Amino acid sequence: MAVIIDGKKISQQIKDELKEKVERLQAQGKKGALAVIQVGADPASSVYVRNKKNACAYIGIESLAYELPEETTEDELLQLVNELNDKEEVKGILVQLPLPAHICEDKVIQAISPRKDVDGFHPQSVGAMVIGEKGFVSCTPAGIIQLLKRSGIELAGKHCVVIGRSNIVGKPMALLMLRENATVTITHSKTKNLPEICRQADILIVAMGKPQFIGAEYIKEGAVVIDVGIHRDENHKLCGDVKFEEVERIASAITPVPGGVGPMTIAMLMNNCVQAMEEEEA
Ligand code: NAD
User: pTM of this prediction?
Assistant: First the structure.
């Protein structure tokens, strides 16, 4: 039976470390706020935004909420982002995605100052990550690296297979594993022989967005399996991209859904906010 990697516990450790760091920064008179912008009232987005605000309150960072109506225009949103770019006290800007269809997400992401891009989605942040320079790293992949390291899992020289090539999970994940000296294979919807490639993985990271797709036939005995997917099953229960019960019997370690990767994403967002506070004051 696999060891269950406890994302809730590890994310709590990280938030506690950050809370102490924020106390130290504040004792030195250093302050900062995270601006959280939501356009429209998508219920899933509202839950994510609330969790982010709660995490800010926990570690002691102020959060400024901008709840804009669905019919906000692209120009109005860009203007708000520009105003926040110029506000000294705002150290991080987060625009909750997805945005309504009439607003171009890329345009909005590119309008955020790279100094305040705590989601790590700006092309400059992505470029810095590719060449190993300082910058914000997108939160879900950064959280997975922390989960693995803090669980004592060796990464150097391991074969890591990533399923998925999205800009927010698959691609940055592969690059971060490369940075950790893993040998990396990226797979996607056009990949042939997916089970065969996955069975070569020492570490399998699944970010395909397909509920309970990955079963035992994809797993090498003793592999580490990280499940990024989040879905509701037919009984409305949360589940991932992996068939947890059957994979748990073969893997050496596995993340559950919920309680695996999810909580790490918010902890790493907080980490990026604290990084922004530190750099701004340096
Ligand atoms: P996406 O839809 O943008 O990308 C999915 C990727 O999977 C694509 O690159 C596609 O090529 C690949 N794929 C699809 N079907 C495949 C197949 N049959 N074989 C091989 N590859 C296939 O999704 P995303 O934004 O990367 O998110 C992936 C999942 O992770 C979703 O379930 C999402 O909800 C979840 N997610 C979770 C968190 C978290 O914090 N836990 C954060 C982001 C995303």
Answer: 0.96
